Amino acid sequence: MKQTLAILKPDCLQRNLVGKVIDRIEENGFEISGMKMIKMTKEQAEGFYAVHQGKPFFAELVEFMTESPVVVAALRKENAVQAWRDLMGATNPENAAPGTLRKEYAESIGRNTVHGSDSDANATREIAFFFSESDLILTQKG
Ligand code: CMP
Q: pLDDT tens across 80-118, in order?
């Protein structure tokens, strides 16, 4: 079993879509090993998205991710990174496949409802960014 980090972004909470997104996570067989609601600070958002520093959308991204609370979750499943990316759909909702979360809910490439890690290495880094080992429940099934 692998893990990935999901973030339910500010636009998701602002439009009361948390329940719908979690429903889809559970329906698709992910195990939630950690979950919390936080209001990201500017420093946290800049650190989390450090890889995008210098890109034209960086300031807009940090501004958006700090405008209101988010839900961060560690998800476990076989091939968790790819499975969560498949459920999210393409970053730009215009390119997202029917039935994906971003096709259904995202407003734009910036306000795109959910985040997911893009590799196992980044998943490990991103989960550790928000959760300590003791926060993570290893299995709900005994
Ligand atoms: P996410 O998966 O959270 O990782 C980086 C984010 O940057 C991405 O989702 C988008 O929301 C955002 N992003 C990428 N490209 C652009 C862009 N051209 N304009 C605004 N935001 C962008």
A: 999 999 999 999 999 999 999 999 999 999 999 999 999
Length of the chain: 142
Of the listed 77, 85, 111, 115, which one is catalytic? 115
- Rg over CA atoms, the chain: 14
User: What is the phi/psi pair of residue 41, to 5°?
Assistant: -85, 165
Q: What is the pLDDT of residues 4-46, one digit of tens each?
A: 999 999 999 999 999 999 999 999 999 999 999 999 999 999 9
Q: Is the CB of 35 under 6 A from ligand 1?
A: no
Is residue 115 part of the annotated active site? The answer reads yes
Query: What is the whole-number distance in angstroms between the Cα of residue 56 and the centre of ligand 1?
Result: 10
C-alpha span between 129 and 126 (Å, rounded) = 5
Amino acid in position 35: M
CA atoms within 13 A on the CB side of 38: 15
Q: At 33, phi and psi to the nearest 5?
A: -95, -10
